[in-house]
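Backbone geometry tokens:
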Amino acid sequence: MTGRQRRRSGGTAVVAGVVACVCLGAGGCVGSGAAIGASRADDPVGELRRAADRLVHAGSSRTRTSMEMAIGGTRVTIRGEGVYDYRERLGRLTVLLPQDPAGTSGNRPITELLAPGALFMKNRGAGVPADKWVRVDTATLSDGNLVTGGATDPLAAAEVLRGTRQATYLGRTEVAGTEVRHYRGTADLAAAARKTPAGSGGPLAAAAKGFATAVVPFDAYLDGQGRIRKVRHRFSFVNGQRETAVAVASTTLLYDFGAPARVRLPKAGDIYAGRIAEH
């Protein structure tokens, strides 16, 4: 087996492990109220389709993520926190796996680096040296890394909204003390992939083919500048072992726009090329 083949094989096992281990374990600027006008509510579909571009204009932010799923009648949640650079499409997250049924967790936090076409993970995969990273080619993932990494890439979460098919404005509310407009609707992943800037739509196109359905229900909360403060998607993917659809609710919270988001990707010598033990 070549080094490239080992990396791809190992990466697939590791990414599957982020969600599989859950299955096994369970059995900045603030928009003012005046800026949130009725005119924004007149074109909810247009507002949502432009939301990703507003994030790129903002430059960067801090983020918190959560991914909820029901496994064997038990609801579990994977949480993450970090920073994201929307212009460079680079992010860094610390991801916490849920406790096991006994109420304990022997897993160390997973460090994830998000980059165009790649996901780097440290502290994930039995047998991987503590100082090494595992690299996964996201083009090989059937969900475009919207689910299996344990956290949805913040910019990808926004770009799903480029495929908004229908949306309803539900009024004003607050998210973490910021006044926002609440929208509810559905997005089409294939349409989102086509409308994403050239070279960046591959993950969404993969998700459109790999998920149980390409239609994604969502709730989105935009501030006075049209930036996403919170978005919640409801994905559905097929469990490869049981061939049954699994519902996943992914929530992304964005705040502190303009915060430093320097992300340094691993050097080639820091990337593990061996096999990852499956368990």
Observations:
- The two ends are 21 Å apart (CA to CA).
- The chain has a mean pLDDT of 82.
- The chain is about 25% helix and 35% strand.
